[in-house]
Specification:
Blueprint: E1 7-11, E2 14-27, H1 28-32, H2 37-40, E3 52-64, E4 67-71, H3 93-99, E5 109-111, H4 117-120, E6 124-127, E7 134-137, E8 143-147, H5 148-155, H6 167-170, E9 177-180, E10 184-185, E11 190-194, E12 203-209, E13 212-216, H7 224-228, H8 240-257, E14 260-262, E15 271-276, E16 282-286
Length: 292
């Protein structure tokens, strides 16, 4: 099975493509946290007998002010990376990029919203050209942009987080880092914005062009129902009450502005807009890809 990839969207004059690293299976109860199964299964029917649901691995490729920017890098392709994900033969981030004519050396900036293994796996690859295998940056010409807080937490994991922060995704890029404190412009059109809750250093990427804007949410939610319902926070959120507040504020902004919303784990391509029902409730609406 080939995983779809390359769906195109536009924000002002910026063209972007959702490039896919496949998908992986996750326990639905863990995704929805304290929400009772009788409620969440109406929104996300489990897909196998173990009550796991498939989560997409949607990354975004765009060009801004002459720079090729890649937001998020999926689970990766190193030994052990794909044990929880679709096989490499079904399509990975690198094959998705290649289909668009983009090689790893063409990427100028990589942005990680946070450093959980399913968001930064392709930060690195195995290089055996010198005889002995070693991990090296996948994108040799890129600057890797991420939160300084997240980098520190990832390199000092605790009992809860050590199962998701892997040195093989981090150590090889140390000489390529741009660690951000607070909010920072990547280009005049792209801004790295803190959005704590999932982790203390979790961030989003805001894209502005002309009168239009959009936001890549990372792991602010793993399912659209969590964007519609403020109280539905994931068990993976290390700061659930902070996550709730961050989500409420940003979703209200997106509703008022009609912003384009992108997130990692939504059913491919994970792009839509947040609207309101006549009763005032938030309602996710999928955005059709250009040419669809």
């Amino acid at each position: 099975m080939t995983i779809p990839s390359g769906a195109r969207f536009k924000i002002g004059s910026i063209d972007l493509a959702v490039v896919n690293d496949g998908s992986f299976w996750q326990d639905a109860g863990a995704v929805f946290g304290l929400v009772p199964r009788v409620m969440w299964e109406r929104q996300a029917p489990p897909m196998d007998e173990r009550y796991r649901i498939p989560l997409a691995l949607n990354c975004v490729l765009l060009r801004s002010q002459g720079k090729n920017v890649l937001i998020e890098t999926g689970v990766g392709g190193k030994p052990g990376d794909r044990e929880v994900a679709t096989p490499a033969e079904d399509g990975t981030l690198l094959t998705s990029l290649a289909a668009l004519g983009v090689a790893p050396a063409d990427i100028d900036v990589v942005v990680n919203t946070h450093l959980h293994f399913d968001h930064c796996g392709w930060n690195t690859v195995v290089d055996s050209s010198g005889g002995a295998e070693r991990f090296v940056p996948t994108f040799p010409n890129a600057t890797y942009v991420m939160s300084a807080t997240e980098w520190d937490d990832a390199n000092h994991p605790n009992e809860r987080t050590r199962g998701t922060y892997f040195a093989r995704n981090l150590d090889p890029i140390v000489d390529h880092l741009d660690l951000v404190e607070g909010e920072r412009k990547i280009t005049d059109e792209l801004t790295f914005v803190p959005a704590p809750g999932h982790t203390a250093g979790h961030s989003t990427v805001v894209i502005r062009s002309g009168q239009e804007w959009g936001v890549y949410l990372g792991d602010m939610a793993q399912h659209r129902a969590q964007l519609e319902r403020t109280a539905w926070v994931s068990s993976f959120d290390t700061l659930p009450l902070v996550s709730l507040d961050t989500k409420r504020r940003l979703m209200d902004e997106c509703v008022e502005a009609g912003a384009l919303i992108m997130y990692t784990h939504g059913a491919y391509p994970g792009v839509g807009r947040m609207t309101r029902t006549p009763e005032g409730f938030r309602k996710w609406v999928d955005e059709p890809a250009l040419g669809a």
